Amino acid sequence: ITKDAQAEGKYIKQSGGRGQYGHCYLRIKPLGRGEGVTFVNAIVGGVIPKEFIAPVEKGVREALENGIIAGFNLVDIEVTLYDGSFHDVDSSEVAFKIAGSMAIQSAVRQASPIILEPIMKLEITTPEEFMGDVIGDISSKRGQVLGTSQRGNVRVINAIVPLSELSRYVTILRSMTQGRASSYMEMSHYDPVPSNIADKIINKENK
């Protein structure tokens, strides 16, 4: 997510006999990259009994893990449970778990969520004559050349490229350089997916 939000989750069901009642308010805010998911219990005065706090957290974490936007799990988010209510007879762990799930889904949709993609560090060793083709190919893959250097009689290109663009890259590189170039890649970081590509992913998931 990219901004703070808050939402209410209310699950009430009456179907003869004992009903179901779960009600909570959540506040969410983005955390730094790699910080994961933090759940904060800020309930005071017993507005939600202690035995229903863990079910709310479970509902929240399951919803985040299952994915609210296009089926991707959500990361780097702080979730604070700060208010709610309960019913002496009808409240249950199941009802509060559902209420927590409803609240987090509503809050996330208000918090301008973005899709992140893995970015790879790429080191390519190639004869000078293929430099132009290799660099052009990197650019066509939404990549960025960080620098080049000389190593003996070959050139070394350092770049970062989205993992999604590197399918069959070793084969493509060998074909482009008559089998004379080699590459090494490792994970670098995560970056937001460009909006036009994110829209395609979301639209595909919603079909």
UniProtKB/TrEMBL annotation:
SUPFAM superfamilies recorded: EF-G C-terminal domain-like, Ribosomal protein S5 domain 2-like
Species name: Candidatus Collierbacteria bacterium CG09_land_8_20_14_0_10_46_12
Elongation factor EFG domain segment(s): 114-201
One of the record's GO molecular function terms: translation elongation factor activity
Gene3D superfamilies reported for this sequence: 3.30.230.10, 3.30.70.240
PANTHER family the record matches: RIBOSOME-RELEASING FACTOR 2, MITOCHONDRIAL, TRANSLATION ELONGATION FACTOR G-RELATED
UniProt protein name: Elongation factor G
Keywords: Elongation factor, GTP-binding, Nucleotide-binding, Protein biosynthesis
Taxonomic superkingdom: Bacteria
Protein's gene: fusA
Alphabetized InterPro entries for the sequence: EFG_III/V, EFG_IV, EFG_V, EFG_V-like, Ribosomal_Su5_D2-typ_SF, Ribsml_uS5_D2-typ_fold_subgr, Transl_elong_EFG/EF2_IV
Span of domain Translation elongation factor EFG/EF2: 1-112
GO biological process: ribosome disassembly
